[in-house]
Each structure stands twice: as C-alpha cells, then as structure tokens.
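Checked the freezer inventory, then went back to the computational side. Two predictions to log before the end of the day. The first one is the construct we discussed on Monday; recording sequence and tokens without edits.
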Amino acid sequence: NHGERSSRNSSSSHHSFSQQQYYTMTDFKLKVCCMGAGYVGGPTMAVIAKQCPDIRVCVVDISQKQIDGWNSAELPIYEPGLREVVDECVGRNLFFSTDVEAEIDAADIVFIS
C-alpha cells in the first residue's frame, strides 16, 4: 500500500537495517515504477535506488512468486553484489509489489523491462 508508512527495521523481514526510519510516498522527490521483476528490472532498479536515495523505486510484477523472491533472503536471480544492494535499499526507497495499477498510478516515471 503506497500510502502507508514503511519501516526500515521490520522484525518479520530478513533485511537488517542499523536504524529505524519511516518513509511515506510524499518523502520522495520522485517516484519510479518498473514493470517487470526479472533479470533487467530488479537489478537495474536496485542500483538506481542505491545511487538515488531520495527517489522511491518500486518494481512491480504480476507474478507473486517473483515478488516474494525479491522480498526474501533468496533473490530470484544472482548478480555479484546484488544481495548487498537490495539489503541496503529495500524498505527504505526500494520496494517490490504485485499492486501494479496502484504503483503505476503513483509513479512519476514508469519503466517497462
């Protein structure tokens, strides 16, 4: 849900963060949505999120299995260093969702991968 606050320190998540911070959609100067959580969309958007912490990046896909993979300890793909990038950004300014319509509506820019 893009209007809700997200915690960077969630006990139910495998991701670990050193401090707890909360972000809402309005905290970001730009909102990016990427359709497609595969070999192109996931890693590309993770790097954008890492390099641009003031931009909200959400990768969407209709495949719940694919999104669950990105939100788990076992990413659905392997690239050297990707796990560390995702761990650093997910929940802060990088999100993975199956709510395609809502994320597209909220986005300033939409990528298709």
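The second is the one RB wanted added to the comparison set:
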Amino acid sequence: MPRSSAKDDPRFQKAVRKIIENTTITVPDAMKCADFTSDEIKNMSLNQRIRRAAKRAKGDGTPSTISANASTMSSVSTLTATPPLIKQKPKKVRHTSAAAHQLRKNKLLERAAKSHALKYATKLYSDSKTTE
C-alpha cells in the first residue's frame, strides 16, 4: 500500500476503529479484522502508522502547548510542597582521565536530588505542624 494513500484506505480506518473500540486487541489482529494481506500485516511501518493513528484518535497524546495566565497564578516560595524529582540514574563511566567531568556531574545531580528531597520533607513537616 503506498504511503500517501494509507490513511484514505478504508481498511486503515477500520483497523484504527478496531483498536479504539477494543483496547486489548493488537495491531496485527486489528489489521486481520480489516482484511489486510499477510504481507501488509508484517509491514512494520504500516503497523506503526496504524498504532500512531489510533493513539491520536484516542487522545492519548501529550498536549502540544500549555498556557498559563499570569493573573491567576500566585507567587510561589522556593519551598513549595512538590514531590521530589525522579532521581536520574548516573551514567556508568569508565575510570579514565576523560571521565572526571562526568563523575563530577553525577555527584552534583545526586547532591541536588538530596537537597530537593530535604526541602520537600521540611515543607511537609512544617505544614503538618501548622495544621495541628
């Protein structure tokens, strides 16, 4: 199936509808229900286009923009109660002279994560004391 006319093909739309209607169905099964040939079912680029079209149709995609109105936002202190950031795994680095910079970056990331967690815990403790 030519790439330019894939979305116009009624089988393509039928496969996308099957995926939307039945969340447990796989893309190849949806393609079988839509009467695709076995060679087309094995075509990974067509599978991916159907998967992405179904995702767009479901609305699972992330929003393209986020708008914020300055008049509705309040001033926020540096110790707001936000959960700690997900700690990044440090890169495994071979112990060579060229790796000194990466080791320093890993150390700084770890220190920043600990600092953020301490601020978060302090803010939660402060809030619990003021509500009592």
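For RB: The chain has five helices and no strands. Residues 89 and 106 are 9 Å apart (CA to CA). Let me know if you want it refolded.
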